[in-house]
Structures are given as C-alpha cells and as structure tokens.
C-alpha cells in the first residue's frame, strides 16, 4: 500500500469526505453527486449525513479546510524583506506556477462562485470570503507601496487574477509566458506602486 493510501485509510470518515469533496468538486464541479462523493471517500451516505447536515454544508467545510493552504501558497515566503510590489507580484507568480499543473482548473473559489450563482449558498459564502480577503490583502499592499488609488488598483489586480485563473483553468491561456506578470507590472507602474 502506498504511503498516501495508508494515510487515507487512517483518515477519519469526515476527513475522507472533505478530501473527496475538494478533489471531485474541483475536477467535476459542485454538482457532483452525493453517491460519487461517498464512494470516493469510502463512506456510506448515512454516515455522511450524520457528519454533515447536507452536501452543501460538506462542500462549504471542504472549501474552508483548504483556505490556509491556498492563502499560504500566495503569501511571499519572506514578507519582511520584500517590498509591497514584490509581494503583489509574488501572488501572480504563484498563480502562473500553479497553472502549470496538469490538474489545474483555475481558482477553486472563483469556480464555486461562478457555478453556484447563489450568494447565500454556504459554499458561496466561504468562497466570497476568500476572494474578499485576497482583494483586501492586495489593497493593503498597494497602499503600503504608495498607490494613488489602492482600492481601484486592488480591484484591477483581482480582475487580472480571476481572469487569468479562469482562462488558464479552461485551457485557453498559458500563464507561463510572462503575460500576467507584464500586465500586473503595468498596473503597478500606472498605479504608482514602488
């Protein structure tokens, strides 16, 4: 048995369900069925409903569980020595790097917002919170970097992030050719960020 299979076998039913929900909803979309989720997790439907009130609640919990890894991946490894400009560019460098993965389907949080369209859905609430924190983080960096209009610049940067992520996730754009970095650099220059 491979190491990951051993770890999976030792994981609790709740963790296996959350892992399956993360994997399958990212790959196949949030409409993945309860049966498929339970089968992938090796957990009965009865057990699933004992652990979660609904599939929606399980999806939201799955998204919440992934937030620390997602946000850590976008955080500069040495924020104290990096300039705000470098910290902003790092976010987009990580997006470009992640987009090279064969199983990259775009930002999982943006995908949930686009698919569900219901702002009150528990998973939409979680996803919107992640996107709002990214915007707030970019705004704070822009402000620290001396941007003339940090709010506008943050909104522009989020549009680039989400647009690039969606296009790369759909396989219609490659992000490793420097286009995203060049676009962000132009926005930072125009916004007065140093």
Automatic annotation (TrEMBL):
User: What does UniProt list as this organism's lineage?
Assistant: Bacteria, Bacillati, Actinomycetota, Actinomycetes, Kitasatosporales
Name of the protein: TetR/AcrR family transcriptional regulator
Keywords from UniProt, A to Z, are: DNA-binding, Transcription, Transcription regulation
Indicate yes or no for the key word Transport: no
**Pfam families listed in its UniProt record:** TetR_N (PF00440)
Q: Where is the HTH tetR-type domain?
A: 11-70
Native organism: Streptomyces musisoli
Q: Which PROSITE patterns did the record assign?
A: HTH_TETR_2 (PS50977)
Which InterPro entries does this one have?
Homeodomain-like_sf (IPR009057), HTH_TetR (IPR001647), Tet_transcr_reg_TetR-rel_C_sf (IPR036271)
Gene3D superfamilies assigned to the protein according to its UniProt record, in alphabetical order? Tetracycline Repressor, domain 2 (1.10.357.10)
Task: Give the DNA-binding residues.
Answer: 33-52
Keyword DNA-binding in record: yes
